[in-house]
Every structure is written in C-alpha cells, then in structure tokens.
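Good day; I would like, with your permission, to put a structural problem before you. What I wish to show you is a protein chain and, alongside it, a tokenised description of its three-dimensional fold. Thank you for your consideration; the sequence and its tokens are set out here:
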Amino acid sequence: MAERVVSWGERSEDRLLGQPVDRLDGLDKASGYAKYSADINTDGTLYAALLTCKLGHARIIKLDVEPAKKVKGVRAVHLFKNVGDESRWDGELVAAVAADRPEYAADGVRAIVVEYEPLAHFVDEDDLEAAQKLDADNIADGKLKEDAEKLGHIKRVKELGEQKKGDVDAAIKDAAVVHKGYYGIHTITHMCMEPHGSHAEWKSDDSLVVHLSPQTVSGTGGQFAGPLGIDANNVEIVCQYVGGGFGSKFAADEWGIACAQLAKETGKPVRLMLDRATELKTAGTRPSGFAEITIAADKDGKITAWDSHHWGTDGIGGATISSGVMPYVFDFENRRRKTTGIACNTGPKRAWRAPNHPQACALTATVIDDLAGKMKMDSYDIFMKNLAQTERASVYAEEMKLAAQLMDWKAKWHPHGEGESGPVKSGLGMALHTWGGRAHAATCLLKIHRDGTVESFAGSQDIGTGTRTAIAITLADTFGLPIDAVKVHIGTSKYPKSGPSGGSTTVGGVTGPNRRAALDGLWKIFDLVAAKHNVAADSLSTKGGQILSNGSPVCSWKQACSLIGPMPLEVMGEGPKDDGLTDNGVGGVQMAHVSVDTETGRVRVNRFVAVQDCGLVVDVKTAKSQVLGALIMGISYALTEERVMDNRSGRFINADLENYKLARIGDIGELVVEMYQPDSEWNRGVIGLGEPPVISPGAAMSNAVANAIGVRVPVLPMTPKRVLDALQGARA
C-alpha cells in the first residue's frame, strides 16, 4: 500500500474546499432563531442589575445595601467594592442586585446608599506634557508628597525603555531628505453587539452550567471553578452563538463570577448582562498611541533611518502599544524607538482585533506617506522601493500591483494637495500590514455512522467568523459529500478541548484536526471497501457520495459505511502538527480613495480596495466577509470612533450608541475585496484571517486625506473639526 500522506490535496474547482459557501448559521441568526446568553430564560431566572461609580476616581466612604434588600422582588445583593475601596475610573463596578424582574433589580440598585470622596484623576492620555507637569508638582525625591497622596495622586509618567539598532544619528545626518512629524490614534473601546454577561444555573451544590459568550469555551470553566471553590470539571460552559468578541471575551470576569455567586446564594438561575454604557466603560479598550517620529531617506526614496518617541495609556487603564511593533512591517537598518506610558483613570485595556497593530500601522505608514509627499514622489513608489526591508517583499509586491489595478491608482494619483481646484478634493492613500495566524492547539472527536452520517464534536466556539462552516466544509470536502451530510457540534466545554479564538488562530486550529481525523477515518473505510470488493485500498477515492477505484465506481458512500458495523467509527483528531495543513504569517495591502470637503471637514469614502492573503482559503465567501467587516470597522476608527473623556470630571461622556459613532451604511463607500490566492498560497495550508484586514484602514484613510488636502490630519479619528483644524493650521 502506498504511503498515506496527510495533506489538503490538489487544488480543483470541483472541490468544495476553496469555494464560496453560505454560512450554515446565517439563517438562524437572521431569523432570530439563534439563542445568545441574554436569550436564556430557564424557569425561575432572576435578573441582575449593576451599580457603577460615575466618578473618574473616588474613594467609597459610605455603602449601605440594606435598603436595596427591602425592595420588592430583590433576592440578593453582591458587592464588588467595600467602604474604603477606590473606584479608579468612570464605570467601575460597585454592586449587583438580583431580583425577580429587571425593573425590580433596577429599583434595588437605585435604593443602595453610596457616598464617595472624589480623588485626583487624569484622563488626558495624549498630553504627555501635562502628565509630566503633574508628576513634577506632586513628586519630590522620587516619592509622592504627603498632601498629594491624600488627594489620590499617583505617578503618571513611566519611561518604558528605549531600543536601538544601527547608527541613527549618522544616517539622519547623511540622508538626502529628513521628515519629522507628530502622529496619533485615540483609544477606542469594545462595544460588541452582544454585551458581556452570562446566565448561571446550579444543577447541584457543586455543578454549575454557565451560558456565556466567551472566546474560549474550553478554557473558561476553570476561571469560574477557582473563585467558587468547585472542581473545574463540574463547570459546563455553553455557547452556541457569540454576538462579537474581538478580543474582549476571554475571561469569566468579575461580573460573571458575581452572576454565579448570586445564583448560588438565591438557589435560582441568574442572568447578568452589562448595559450598553457599562459595556463601553468597563469591557476593555484598544489603547491609544501618539508619537513624534523622524524618518530619513536617500535621494531615491530608500528609507535609511527611523527615530521615534511614542506614548499612550499605561498603568491604571491599560498599557500603551509596545515599541516592539514600531516601525511597523518595515525593519529599517537604523532605528531608535523610545516608549513612555501615562497612567490614566480611563478603564481597562483588552485585546482588540490585532492588538497593537492598527496603532503601529497608523503611526508608521503615515510618516512614510509624508516622506513621499515631501519628496514629491508617489507614495506607491516609496512603499514599493522599501519592500526589501519587509519579511515578505515578493508577496507585498504582487498584492500592491493587484490593488493598484483594482483602484486604478496611477490614473487617480496626484501629488499631495494638487488635485481638484474646488472645495471638494479627492486623494489616494495606502498601507501594508502583517499578522501571524498560526493554528492553536485543538482536538476533535469524529464519528462516522453506518448510515453514512458524519459528526464532529469540539469544544470550540464560533465568535461570528464561520467556524461551524469551515469545519463542515473540511469534512464534506474530505469525504466527497454535500455539506448538509455532515453535522458540526461545538459550543460546550463538555466536548473535546479546543483553543481560544484569539490571534486569528481558530480556522487553522479546528480545520487541521478535523482534516486529520477525517482522512484517518476515510482510510479505515477504504480498507474495509478494499477487502469487501477485492480492490487495492490505495486506488480508492471518494466523490459525490461514491467510492471510486481508479475513477470507476465501486459502491456508494452509504454502502461503504455499512461495513463499519453496529457502532460508529470514532476517530480523534488533534493539532497543530508540522504536516502542511496549517502555516503562519499573512499580509495585505489596502488602498483608499476619498473626497474631503474643505469647507465642512467631512471625509467621504469613494472606493476602498483590500488585497489579502491567508494561505489556503477554506471558504471564499466567508473570507471576503471577514475583510469587508474589517474595512467597515477601520473606516469607523479612521473617521468617527473614539472614546471621549471629560478632563474636568473624568467621565466617559459618549458611552452610548448615539454619540459613540460608528460607520453607517452611507459612510462606507464602495468596498472591493480580493483574496490573493495563487497556488503558492494554497500549498501553504490554512492560516487565520480574522485580525489582519482591520490593521491598515486607519493609515490608508489618513494617507488618502493627506493626499487630497495637502496637509496631514495628525490624529485619528479624522473628525470634521480635526480636518478643519489641520487646514487652518496649514493656512496659518
């Protein structure tokens, strides 16, 4: 018998793999049949509401929950804080009330008597000088002054280090052109369509079922078990659907533990979901990044030096972006980068779709574009000239050529600020990005029944990325069956363990084990068919529900499965393995064409082109959908989306869906997505896609606006006011 090799096989239009396939759960979601955590309502369910502190920084000096316990329908009160504790940002949790009805719980929250002593706060995450002045006023001999400490002051500025490579000063001195600029990108916050929360129900004193929307079904049970004092095996996490996670839903969180504790105390199921304001304030942020950057190049446009100092939130509310990702994508031979953190009372940081990369891209691609503008060169040419200083130069070059064709770049391009003469001016901008996407560790159980039915079981989750569909395509393609002939079971921690959906690792994580298990099961069936029909096992293949020998029919798939016997054939799959099914490292190119009204400051997207690689594309339709969604997210943080803090009160003042502005249908323009997938990509195997396409939009949009109006809007988002301020500054 010939050696049986695990692989994806030859690329073919006859295969289901790599074709556009409709999402298996699309109809359930669109019709409302899909049930999320907030839809779980078992008999006797209580509803919890939260009390949060609405001050930027305060100490609790009085907290009386007894009045809440006397409110009609209230069953229990849980405390996150006690008298003497500090609330460190607007929105930090203080207490939770569980009651028979949501309005009773709200009444209970209002009945709690709480008093605060306001303390010093700082929320100017972009104002490094103000933070430094605060430290100068409040610190003596390296220690906080006594009166400052009483007022709640802390050290605000922390130097996070400096990294060097080559001789930066000499390279700048010898350069033909040098550009220095200020750039920034503000904090944005998680606001998943489905807020954080859970439904907790105790089946016995030590057995808990939690309906949750986590990004790790297999990995969250233990986070409940420890604080609750039970065995992790006695916690079942159930999650059939997730209404968005984007990096924010890896933890049980203090409100999840509180939900379970309230359920234990009351002896009833409890549902606790964050309201929209609390979701925005407390469920995590993508931290800001601001930088002063000097960049230098020779007369041909090859970049020879990079020198940057960047800063952003650190300490209380999260951390600034890592200096290790700057400069982004490009590895210049001479570079120096310094990082400073600012401790702000602004809520916690969490991973946010491609952590650090969107900020780093926005601070890197923009200064490269400004260099091109200063040299009166096409920024496309500058990027192309410097691809040798990236890890995937040949791939980027082909993607840039393809993107330029789709955008008609050369016909539309003009030097910065030298386009139309009227008040509305158009411009082009581009950016590059990179990501890892290696498969996470995962297992699955595959069952092949004697009637031909195929089932897969895995403790994975579908956070909206099409995990179910990718698994089904993998199995159906391997067995030569229609996609409706396989059943995919995910969404409970009782199934074989699967890794978390983070780092764009899921599609490789789940398809690899399922492909390996499916091939193993198929080969076992081939052996049975070979013995039954007296043919060589290595001559067999499957297609269209038939078993073929050298292309000629032998029996049907169902007839072959009948040879299994009364019990199903069970095969375990695991991964990742070094067998070519998965790989690591993707990239992409994005180009934006915008119009800017110089009288109103309004930016409109005309056309947005994204060319993206991710190895073997399992489902082209879902892959393109991922990129489209990323472009829309990117347009949001490029033009309107930011957390707005009030300096005087320390409040998060736009924590609602009216004023926390995201892109609407009329804001996105024409979106063009092209998956870059020559045979060389197919042969790499499956690589994750979820995060990389959200990296470049901010930089590409910023560069397009700069090309249109001839002046940089230095900080994202480019609101009308910031556009007008940039124009006014240029005129001055």
